[in-house]
From TrEMBL:
It comes from the Eukaryota. Residues 1-25 are annotated as: Disordered. InterPro entries: LRR_dom_sf. Residues 10-25 have a biased composition (Low complexity). This is Uncharacterized protein.
Amino acid sequence: MTNSPPPSVSTSTSTSTSTSTTTTTSTFRDVSLDLSNKHAKRALEVLLQMEKRRTKVRHARVFSSNPTGYESPQGIKIMTELFELLSRLPNLKTLTVSFPFPQTLPLQALCFLSGAPRLKSLQLDNVSLQTEDGDQEEDKQEQQLEQQLELWNKTGQLQELTLQHCRGTKALQKLLSKGLPSSIRRLTIANTPIGHAAAPAPASTSSSSTSASTTSACSTESCACSTTGTLQAIIQNNPQLQGLRLWDVPNLQDNHVQVLADQILLMGDKTLIQELEVTSSILGPPSGEAVANLLIQHRRSVKIEHLKLHLDWEDCGSTVALLLLTNKQIKHLDIRLYGDDDNVRADATAIAHALQNTTSSSLRRLRVCMELEPEQVAGDEDIMQAFEQMLATNDALKYLVLDDSLEDFALSAEMEAKLKLNRSGAPRLWKRNTPPSHAHFVQALINQRNDVNTLYHILSNQPTLCSYALMAPAKQQQQQDADEEAMLSKSSSLNCSTGIDFSQFAPGRKTLSSLSPKRTTYKARKFLKKSMKKVFASSA
């Protein structure tokens, strides 16, 4: 047997900074299987016989360049056998199955992946899942499938599952309701139906504690084949799930999102969901209100930190503003503002005002998607001024994106400068009740070490860092210890670890206009460069 790779298996290696395709010196970390090649199965079998090379495979991709695919019974059988072979790769971590057309894949084939001990991520794109049909042996096959799903649930190590443009409602419901491995952490459902169009009567909103019990009273028979039942099963049967993404799910209605919110509330501390994303042009205010009320009224029991709502939700500004004012757990918010120009402008302004003077806020990333033209936002003084005023007092927000889903709107130079300063962490140090240490400011400098203007601004308001850098290392430690003892002995509250009251710098603190490159002269840059080398050297 030769050492060259088998036919129709494309392998790639990354020996340096670039990725190249090779046939003799490949590390076999990435394997691509083209099902349009009739030798694909044989190629994978040959690879499995190479013990050293099969242990190196980390990522596998299954695709087909043939427009007809494997729609014949023989082709479906080969697909099942290929998945059984893939499960024998001992170190396989990610598997992507992507087709340019709907490709039939038996649900039983996925169950073979329970034998892959290190598989963490699985993505199915344009796959039509199906359960094997049989007239005489239908009950036997159904029982066998249940056993396979139960085995995958107990032994599978999958942590992330993505279903994109998939079909086969019956098989999908079985997979999502009973077949998800107990190790699953993140589930993404995009353009994939998880139930029929018909849905039970809308459940009450999550604003009351009794709504969850009302929703859970729905019988299994009435919900087994509905989107409602599938969503309930996802939350109830997977308490370890941390992220749920629902992107443009067909037949997903407002009452389904209400049921989802109620089920999360019903689980309480038993669920670990920290990330929730719902995007749909069909869903409206009821869906947004259901999720917002869940996070406002039950903010202590619900642990969601990442929230994305892209809905046709008009006049959502006041509700989102209340959410930001009351819920201190959300770190990432991605919201879409929908409606006419006046409504969008009012909603954006309300959100900006809610984030003013929120030094204790946990929000670090904010994206506001507005149904406005870029020229309108750039020339709209109300919107831009509201966010500028917010950033002037908000020291927690690190990333801000204003866009129209296609193009980002340009932020002013002052806004960009303040965001960079917030990412360094220096503004929060200046406003701390307890004096920050020398190491805290050094870390702030390190966070923005590639931005000279931000470094210059921090050093301008913390000049003692330069004096520390000019000392010998032994004297630095002695001086720092002496300063700390002096601060502890003083009754007044100081704002600096060197014994200097930083409040005296507040009236004359250099504004963000000093961050302009034109204000940073050549001599200042040269002195700053020398000082920074000494600061970083002393902190090492």
